[in-house]
Amino acid sequence: METLYRKYRPQNWKSLTGQDHITLTLQKQISTDKTAHAYLFTGPRGSGKTSTARILAKTLNCQNRQANTTEPCNECSSCQEITAGRSLDVVEIDAASNTGVDNVRENIIDSARLSPTKSKFKIFIIDEVHMLSASAFNALLKIIEEPPKHVFFILATTEAFKIPGTVLSRCQRFDFKKVEVSKIKERLKMICEKEGVEAEVKILDRIAHQSDGCLRDAEGLLGQILALGEKKVTDKEASLVLPRSDWHKIIELLDFLVTKNARESIMLINNLVEDGIDLYNFTEDLIRALRLLLLTKLNVDLNLLNDELEEEGAKKIRSLSLKIEAGQIGKMIEIFIKQKTLLRSTHIPQLPLEVAVVTICENNTVTKEDSEKKSSTGNTIATETKPATKKEEPQAKEVKIIIENTTKEPVVDQSFTLEQVKEQWDVFLKKVQEYNHSLPFILKMGEPVELRGRIVKIAFRYTFHRDKINESKVRAMAEKALNEVFKGANLGLEGIHIPIEESVAVIDKPAEKVDNELVTNLIESFGGQLAE
């Protein structure tokens, strides 16, 4: 049985789908006899590059085409031979299988010197041309630069950036784009009508979205469904072929996050694990959905919602965009991107997503609706960065926190600077000791030297002190104590290394007398033992 994308491969310009900007230009060149001798077709897979190359070759060699016309007749011997793939004058080469310079010399250069056997032009279609070796490109360059009058070159690739600039400069470049969802649906509907099959609109919609702009993939999925032999395609038949769609779960999770419902969010994530859904792929789709939510909030009209989501999902995204601020969406994206990197490295697969949910739902940010409610009562939560004056050093930037006013007392304005951090450093060290009695010893080996945003930079003379502090468990413990001292500041810690010769001015502490307890703490901190 012939596959659908072969059976319904476009045979003329009118049947090409979704590349009007290219077909119109090429037709104009053909009608005015101003064609180039070398073309480069580049774009995503399944967007019609090879089909366009064949139609162009067919049009140039059509025996019945009249002057000022652009469509091939598809009836003459030349057109039929090109359609069947057996024309001696239209040579298709797969560069992925013929990467060497010898193949280029034998199949292209030597053949190009010979006149066409029976057609007007000899045309070389080189697919995946970026796979050619450097020496093969050098050999090809001369013939492309000065080809015989009877020769045309059509290069096709998905990775134009890998093609040498010397070759690119000799070609007319045409950039293919992903086919729009609406046009894919029209194409699938046409195929169903010709096959005598009735398919529900929502099934065609799912296929179009699943194909991600690749018409060949869409036709392949439809072919698998039609292979079941049913004259009417419903959800039951489609579910046997179409990959499972989790977009309704993603939209549901977004709803919970916007309304700060941590409990339902975590339950949904755990249900996904029980259902065997890959959380990494799910998180990637969640980030895509958050991007759509952000662009919708910013009123960016890119038709992305209609291309990415089905109608019901697009409506829900628009509704959610009215309940949240753009800055909050940006923070959500940052959190999930960070947590996605941890999904492959933890034995509890859902834990990174659970942490992300808690971070989003339990922090001090509020939804747009909450902001409007609190503005009416005078209770606000805001985070600002006070601009530094010209005389201020980078570390002198202030992080200004306005604490939520839960009573009728005036709002407390606390400004944190590096100097204030230094003043409270001893208090912080005592607080750290409540969690780990050996950790203060390590921290005493360094000194806070910079407050960058909300990160306190601690300088150490030795790298092993820095590395110990930067361990995730140790740093989390220290940050917890730090934020108990500076409540509401949401500060973080980072150890940095300053070599001994550079650290005299920064860390110049007198040597302290080390007692037995301090030695014991040091041994415990680094997992060593006392040598006799």
What would you say about this model in short?
This protein has 532 residues and is of the alpha/beta class.
SSE layout and pairings?
Elements: H1 4-7, H2 20-31, E1 38-42, H3 49-61, H4 77-84, E2 90-94, H5 101-112, E3 122-127, H6 134-145, E4 151-157, H7 165-168, E5 172-175, H8 181-195, E6 198-199, H9 201-210, H10 215-226, E7 232-233, H11 235-238, H12 247-258, H13 262-274, H14 279-297, H15 304-308, H16 311-321, H17 326-340, H18 351-362, H19 368-377, E8 382-386, E9 398-402, E10 413-416, H20 418-423, H21 425-433, H22 439-444, E11 446-452, E12 455-460, H23 463-470, H24 472-485, E13 492-497, H25 516-526
Parallel strand pairs: 1-4, 1-5, 2-3, 3-4, 6-7, 12-13
Antiparallel strand pairs: 8-9, 9-10, 11-12
Helix pairs in contact: 3-4, 5-6, 8-9, 9-10, 12-13, 12-14, 12-16, 13-18, 14-16, 14-17, 17-18, 21-24
